[in-house]
Design a protein that fits this description.
Elements: E1 3-6, H1 10-23, H2 35-41, E2 53-61, E3 67-76, H3 77-83, E4 87-95, H4 99-115, E5 120-123, E6 135-138, H5 155-161, E7 165-176, H6 183-196, E8 199-200, H7 206-209, H8 213-223, H9 235-246, E9 254-258, E10 264-272, H10 275-281, H11 289-298, E11 302-310, H12 319-334, E12 338-341, E13 344-345, H13 349-352, E14 360-372
Parallel strand pairs: 4-5, 11-12
Antiparallel strand pairs: 1-2, 2-3, 3-4, 5-14, 6-14, 7-12, 7-13, 7-14, 8-9, 9-10, 10-11
Length: 375
């Protein structure tokens, strides 16, 4: 018999976050998340998403009292108000290959959804669009990016058996950087710049990046306003993202596009791949995990394309070309050989067109699911 228990204290939260590291121990394609960061994400007072969301977490136990699964239920009230829907998200879901475990977990989170007046389940998703979304359905033999998530092949069928159906697919590409990046990218960027009176912000270090951060988040809220699952970021959520990413930023891989009045109209951020470093860190920055991370940030032949956002007014005007041209300069300078795109909606052709002239392969696919609850 499988029982589920709500996570109500720090010890249980620690076990909740640690469970996938036990489940996938020894798997060469699993990338452990930094457990302290995951705990903070799920703790009110440490994650400003709780200003607009509520969340509960559960662990599943077998007859021996051993943990065999986990799941979180999240209600993003701001997104539901925006869309007029009554959606409960499920996320942080992991389980052994046993239909009874999955059913117990999903019955529990669906019961929570009904108690809160929700009529639809959607996931796996997190609080924000920037949390890893989806169940991996292709690419089990590929190393995920640090911002992706690995799961075993049996996840999807168990969810389908419980009445869940496909909602959206997210894809990831591996792009091979040629010895010489085609000149067409620089020419295209120059044409877009002249035609639209746009220019790159000149940034030499993180300090010079700071004055643009508020403009970046205004641009992001505009760019993502119609995106599936996105609700406008609050000032507190913006602060959380600043803290999360700013310490890892290499300005060689930051592009900020400004209009004639110095307003941010588009930006892109990429980071050296941290996947192998996180495997070595084994879920902890201390005592030595931070050393692996620092080495990966300083010397790396693979770049993770983290985020591109373009103000709604400048969509379809070629601003992507200016962003990619800035990345290309950093790529050439630092000897990057590969670019990995992090999870993006499969119909996001404006970004995918950036590497149509480069050798690239679709390497991973993740899927979210939806289920309408009966009364």
């Amino acid at each position: 018999m499988i029982i589920t228990k709500e996570v109500t204290n720090k010890k249980e939260l620690k076990a909740f976050v640690h469970f996938p590291n036990v489940l996938y121990r020894g798997n060469p394609y699993y990338v452990p998340q930094i457990e302290s960061m995951d705990r903070d994400t799920l703790t009110p007072g440490k994650n400003h998403a709780f200003e607009v969301c509520e969340c509960k977490c559960w662990l599943a136990y077998d007859q021996k009292g051993e943990i065999v699964g986990r799941v979180a239920g999240i209600i993003n009230h701001k997104y539901n108000e925006k869309t007029g829907e009554r959606i409960c998200r499920f996320g942080w879901i992991d389980f052994i290959d046993d239909p009874n475990v999955v059913k117990a977990l999903m019955d529990t989170v669906e019961g929570y959804a009904r108690e809160k007046g929700m009529d639809t389940m959607n996931g796996p998703m997190g609080f924000l669009e920037f949390d890893a979304a989806g169940v991996l359905v292709e690419g089990y033999d590929k190393l995920p990016t640090a911002y992706g998530k690995y799961n075993a092949p049996y996840y999807e069928q168990h969810l389908l058996d419980l009445g869940y159906v496909k909602d959206a697919d997210y894809v990831e590409y591996l792009i091979k950087v040629p010895d010489v990046i085609p000149e067409r990218y620089a020419r295209m960027a120059e044409l877009v710049s002249i035609k639209n009176s746009l220019h790159q912000a000149v940034i030499h270090n993180r300090t010079e990046l700071m004055p643009y951060l508020d403009g970046l988040f205004r641009c992001l809220n505009s760019a993502y306003s119609k995106l599936h699952g996105f609700s406008e970021l609050t000032p507190g959520q913006c602060d959380d993202l600043k803290k999360q990413f700013l310490s890892n930023i290499n300005v060689d891989y930051v592009s900020i596009v400004l209009d004639a009045d110095e307003h941010v109209v588009g930006f892109g951020v990429a980071l050296p791949s941290l996947s192998k470093a996180m495997q070595k860190a084994k879920g902890s920055l201390f005592p030595f995990g931070w050393i692996h991370m620092l080495k990966a940030l300083k010397q790396n032949d693979t770049l993770d394309l983290l985020l591109i956002a373009i103000d709604e007014k400048y969509k379809n005007k070629g601003v992507n070309a200016m962003i990619f041209d800035k990345f290309a300069q950093g790529i050439t300078k630092n000897g990057v050989k590969y670019i990995e795109s992090t999870r993006e909606l499969e119909d996001n052709t404006s970004v995918q067109n950036l590497w149509r002239y480069l050798e690239h392969d679709l390497t991973k696919r993740a899927r979210t699911y939806i289920k309408h609850l009966e009364g």
